[in-house]
Amino acid sequence: MVGLDLALLILALWIALSIRYNTIYIPPDFAVALILLSGPLITVATFAISELYRLVTRYLGYRGHTRIIGCIWLSVLIWSLVAFMAGQPAAPPRSVLFGYGILATLFITGSREMISMLLESAGVRLSELPADVERTPVIIFGAGQLGVQLLETLRRGNAREAVAFVDTEPSVWRQYVAGVKVHDARRLPSLIERYHVKEVLVALPNDRRHERKLILKDLQQQPVQVLTLPDVEDVTSGRVSVADLRRLEVNDLLGRDRVPPDAKLLMRKTQGKSILVTGAGGSIGSELVRQLLKHRPRRIVLFELSEIALYRINDEVAEVVRGMQPDEPRPEIVGVLGSVCDATKVREALVDYDVEVIYHAAAYKHVPIVEQNPIAGLQNNTFGTAALVEQAQAAGVELFVLISTDKAVRPTNVMGASKRMAELVLQAAAAKGGPTVFTMVRFGNVLDSSGSVVQKFRRQIKAGGPVTVTHPDIIRYFMSIPEAAELVIQAGAMAEGGEVFVLDMGEPVRIDDMARLMVRLSGFDVKDAEKPDGDIAIMYTGLRPGEKLYEELLIGDNTSQTEHPRIWRSDEPFLSEDDLRRQLSQLSAALETRDLNALHAILLRNVEGYHPENAVSTLPVDDERPRDWPAPSRTLH
Predict the structure, then answer these.
(1) Residue 2, Ramachandran bin (φ over 0: left; ψ between -120 and 50: alpha; else beta)
(2) pLDDT value of position 467
(3) Which stretches of 444-576 are assigned E, i.e. beta strand?
(4) CB 428 within 8 Å of CB 576
(5) Coil, helix or strand for 258?
(6) Helix residue ranges, H only, 294-373
(7) Quick check: 610 and 417 in contact, CB under 8 A?
(8) pLDDT tens, 597-630?
(9) Phi-psi region for residue 497, left (φ > 0), alpha (ψ -120 to 50) or beta?
(10) pLDDT in the model for residue 619
């Protein structure tokens, strides 16, 4: 490389001199030749001192070229100073210095590009040498920077050969990217057939998630695997390779592009705060803790009923804190084992750790389980929330955020009714006033939470089926756990008191479609009337007790936008503090006597739209309905 650079630099200097003197230049004497030759020597020395010869030419990149250009012009400056101090009358003119710099830049950067291309070509040919290795034809979805990087990575191996790019951007159609033609994404099925493609590799950044949904729609009937990287942006940084390609999962296919979080909202109620998270070991609670760690809290109190769940999240968080940079503020992590129904334990945690913000995620959430155990569900979800609210008021907590559910809207089950009663507790506390801001965040299902349908489908597919779906028309709203936790924190930062924040869940998903998609993504065919020889059957088992075909997010129509595009504010009807206290007293008495008839009657009076599917007795609504309770709304949202 040194010899090549020196030859190219001397050539650049000779051309610059010949242009300047309009003749084939020959130095008149040895002294002039020595001064002229010192220029290329100084440039090569500058390259060496700058460690340019330690860079791998094949992966030089634009930063390497920038360093080359900087070294060339620095050497020109040094050379001109040396020639000036030598005092020779034949020192090179300024036009020669300038011409030498330009030509040297072109020659050296051009030579590096040429060498890189030759090495790349040689690497491709070498990878093709084994005659017994058949390269798998693949299509790359996404002809952007990530797609090109993935293509280069494939070419350095010998397992896959990219035969085409596809993209949804019309401006790149019929063009060639790194020698591979880009096609309209709608031609994907015909390209698969033409090139006998076995795999489609997804090279899309996270802000193009919607396109992943379109891919699967086009490919469900195609005999190909769809692969992506754990985080496709990591390809460009070299943190992952083609070996890390994995099949697309349901989490990748929500079909909603991520909205960047508002940093000010995330920090508003977290930085420097002592924060308590109930249900800290659960799906939402643990993700809330992970998100909160990023926003510099003073302390995080992990409040959890399950010992093993508390151990796991405590151990995980402690490891994250140990890995923080020395200059980063390290939050104190405290694990508290107890139930939110234990008022004494709650009071001790709030006072001892000077809690300023509460995220209440602890709840019994599985509809069939709570339907079979209504007393335990109401004690935990409703009265546990009431106990926590009372202690938060007494301790002067700044903010209390309840994690609610879409099942609280016109529920057909005890779980949903218990969560709506918990919302009423917070609304009454907010109406009473005081230093504590009480608010609720309501959203639907989160993908891959504990006990979720996704986990059940995975187990059933692994066992060879059948995959059980309760009803072919049942639909649900879904979002990822990290997105839900991120939005909860931002919603809490906007709270003024008593409002219900509703997260934009996007389009609903048919559970039947999800089941079929998961079977397909696992590399199997669905066994049905169209494919009787398929691998895994879909079985319909009927709606479970208390289960609805669809869920809603709003009770009334009084909604408004917030400063975040994915968060809506809803002002909904509620009970006064006196009415609520009287109803909770009656409900408590029914739980004490285990009177399920009275229990359902009280829920009927107080939870708007409650239609129990398997109540022991559906009693008539009597005069105990609160006086100002509005007429039930039948508007579907």
Answers:
(1) alpha
(2) 92
(3) 445-446, 467-469, 475-476, 478-479, 500-503, 509-510, 526-527, 536-540, 559-561, 567-570
(4) yes
(5) coil
(6) 307-322, 343-352, 367-372
(7) yes
(8) 899 899 998 888 888 754 443 333 333 434 333 3
(9) left
(10) 34
Dist CA 79 CA 529 (whole Å)? 82
Are 363 and 278 within 8 A, CB to CB?
no
In whole angstroms, what is the distance from residue 199 CA to residue 468 CA?
29
> What gap in Å lies between CA 41 and CA 5, rounded to an integer?
10
Provide DSSP, 460-487. Answer: HHHTT-PEEES-TT-EE-EE-HHHHHHH
The answer for residues whose C-beta is within 8 angstroms of residue 623's C-beta and 6 or more apart is none
408 in Cβ contact with 442 (< 8 Å): yes
Pairing of strands 500-503, 160-167: unpaired
Which amino acid appears at position 61 of this protein? G
Neighbouring residues of 378: CB distance < 8 A, sequence distance ≥ 6: 414, 418, 421, 587, 591, 599
The secondary structure of residue 176, as a DSSP letter, is: E
Tell me how far apart the alpha carbons of residues 330 and 296 are, in angstroms, rounded to a whole number: 8
Asked if 335 contacts 302 with a C-beta cutoff of 8 angstroms, the reply is yes
Whether cis (ω within 30° of 0) applies to the bond prior to 261 is: no
Pairing verdict, β 299-304 and 332-337: parallel
3-state secondary structure of 55: coil
Q: Is 611 strand, coil or helix?
A: coil
- DSSP string of 188-206? HHHHHHHHT--EEEE---G
**pLDDT given for residue 27 in this prediction:** 82
Residue 502 parent element (H or E): strand 500-503
pTM, 2 dp: 0.66
What sign does the dihedral 15-21-26-27 (CA atoms) show?
negative
Sort 140 into a burial class: Cβ within 10 Å, 0-12 / 13-18 / 19+.
buried
Listing DSSP states for 359-417 in one string gives EE------HHHHHH-HHHHHIIIIIHHHHHHHHHHHHT-SEEEEEEEGGGSS-SSHHHH
152-186 burial, b for 16+ CB within 10 Å, e for fewer?
Answer: ebbbeebebbbbbbbbbeeebbeeebeebebbebe
Return the closest-CA partner of residue 217 out of 450, 428, 13, 516. Answer: 516
CA distance 241 to 5: 33
Q: What is the distance between the alpha carbons of residues 161 and 180, in angstroms, rounded to a whole number?
A: 11
Tokens 């093709």, located at residue? 128
- Measure CA 71 to chain center: 42
* Blockwise average pLDDT, block size 10, the chain, 637 residues: 91 90 84 84 90 71 80 90 70 84 90 78 51 74 82 76 88 82 87 87 72 67 72 48 59 61 86 94 92 92 95 93 85 94 95 95 91 93 95 94 90 91 94 91 78 81 89 84 88 89 81 84 79 88 79 69 85 86 93 90 88 49 37 31
